[in-house]
Specification:
Two copies of one chain form a homodimer. Chain A has helices spanning 16-27, 54-71, 100-118, 137-141, 144-153, 193-203, 240-252, 269-279, 291-295, 306-313, and strands at residues 3-6, 9-10, 32-40, 45-52, 87-96, 122-126, 173-177, 182-188, 213-220, 225-232, 258-264. In chain A, the strands form two sheets. In chain A, strands 1, 2, 3, 4, 5, 6 and 7 form a seven-stranded mixed β-sheet that branches. Chain A has a four-stranded antiparallel β-sheet with strand order 9-10-8-11, covered by helices on one side. Chain A is α+β, with helices and mostly antiparallel strands. Chain A has ten helices and eleven strands. Chains A and B meet through strand 3, strand 8, strand 9, strand 10 and helix 7 of A and strand 3, strand 8, strand 9, strand 10 and helix 7 of B.
Chain lengths: 315, 315
């Protein structure tokens, strides 16, 4: 069974009634489950997290556009967070039984449908974009809603779907596909901020570290310790355990130990299972051996294998 | 949402048509999913694995009894595996959102229902039994079907439910609750069987090792290596990572390294997550942070917390 996560960022974080209507539009959609939603009044932005099968996720995101396009007017929208449209960003994330290519196809299908139904221009981003200068969200969003008329008239910035002018109130939307993001922090048993900053610099992509790590060093004043705070943007290609072991080794060079690590928010089961596989040196393990994964898949009869027989003679 | 696993062992491993009828009786039951079934002709025994919510699991096991009691005659049953009844053993296993006490209550409810509907006497076992000498399956099954009339007439061996005489064709059933069993092997980079046997002896309960480990040493002739083959009977109280680390340390004492480890068959997600938590020194982690677990639970809105905000400033 396909399981896709979708995390639309909507440009309103203040009108509780509107936010509830959007949440409810997702909740009542068959085939999806609303996992979480949070709103930030100073950003004036809400993030909804839901997951389900391909058809369910498509229906739910169209329902989000329905409510948001009818009720949000970017001409009067103010907030700290940069934004381009009423439904600002829509990533589709493969979780289980589905490939990145499936999520790219879904992003393109939804992009075409949004342009056709609402007249909102759509830019594809990340894995869904074939254009190397239009993959990065920040590049696409630069200039924001107010700069859209000029930007869209510039060579190379026609949208992937819909009109070459912004929707008068809903602006434009950025829709794409990416891997699940894991927010991961490692706390060090020291109050030396320079150590956290040096380690962050060593492991993050921008300064020569791992390809899918963003990192910064922070002081946790109330606890008298420091933290290497990270976003892992592709936990398959840059797995948690490799980052952990590298931070541990780099910290040892300064005589510092790891106090603990923590995952902020949600994490796909596979990101944790990979750590178990690594440390336990597991051979030949497949996700189909996880009972909960099997519960969502087809059942298959099999002959008792040799190893099961060995098990039965143990006393 | 409650998730309970049930693994009935049925005394027929040869009649494919009957085995399919039992499998199908489970498959068509709402609220449960048949995860696996395997049959061993020489044991003349089939094992079905299914999971679901409390009501679904209860309906499915009654459906298994329906077909098995009507079609299996222990008077003419022959096979290598010891057995007491047509539906020989029925364990209920807590997987998620459910306690051992819930599974004990379900075992007692099903035991009473089986006795009432089919006239089959039922013995409770493991966690469902309050009688210390009637917890162990082997003790209850000793004497097998043929010895039941004598055993049941013996003081202390009246069944927990139903008549004090065996069902003429279906014998008696043993129903109870236990933790999920993890079949776990560690392969050593050596051909020295004595090392595998010494390590098995060091870690298994029966010779002074961990409370919930059964273990034996084997030679894997075709690969020229040896294996410590284990059943972990309570992965919460004796976790996989602790067993792995102990085997690794004991092997090092003989100059032997661990080649790999392997899980045979199904494993609950929590057993692997615990290993990730241990090795990554994770603090404050809850199962509700696993995306797939959240998918089966209620959705809850929340305010963006401080750490999420920290994450958003990382570049």
């Amino acid at each position: 069974m396909a399981l896709i996560e979708c995390i639309p960022n909507v440009s309103d974080g203040r009108r509780a009634e509107l936010i509830e209507r959007i949440a409810s539009a997702v909740s009542v959609t068959p085939g999806v489950r609303l996992l979480d939603h949070s709103s930030d009044p100073s950003h004036n932005r809400s993030v909804f997290t839901f997951a389900g099968d391909t058809d369910g996720v498509e229906r739910a995101i169209m329902a989000v556009f329905d409510v948001a396009v009818a009720n949000i007017d970017l001409r009067s929208h103010k907030g700290e967070h940069p934004r381009l449209g009423a439904v600002d960003v829509v990533p589709f994330v493969p979780i289980e039984g589905v490939t990145m290519a499936d999520c790219v196809a879904l992003a393109k299908k939804v992009g075409a449908a949004v342009a056709a139904r609402f007249g909102v221009p759509v830019y594809l981003y990340e894995e869904a974009s074939d254009n190397p200068v239009r993959k990065n969200l920040e590049d696409i969003r630069r200039g924001e809603f107010e700069g859209l008329p000029t930007k869209m008239a510039t060579a190379g910035w026609a949208p992937d779907f819909g009109p070459a002018t912004p929707h008068p109130t809903a602006g434009a939307s950025v829709i794409g596909a990416r891997m699940a993001l894991v927010a991961y922090n490692i706390n060090l048993a020291t109050d030396r901020l320079d150590v956290a900053k040096k380690i962050a610099s060593a492991i993050r992509h921008s300064s020569g570290g791992y390809r899918y790590v963003k990192a910064a060093g922070f002081k946790l004043e109330d606890r008298g310790i420091v933290q290497v705070s990270m976003n892992l943007t592709n936990y398959e290609k840059t797995p948690i355990f490799r980052v952990f072991e590298t931070v541990k080794r780099e910290a040892a060079r300064y005589g510092v130990a790891i106090l603990e690590s923590e995952i902020v928010g949600l994490v796909p089961s596979a990101a944790l299972t990979a750590a178990a596989e690594f440390y336990l040196q597991m051979a030949g393990f497949t996700p189909q051996q996880i009972l909960e994964t099997r519960l969502r898949a087809e059942s298959t009869p099999h002959q008792q294998d040799q190893q099961s027989v060995i098990q039965s003679v143990i006393n």
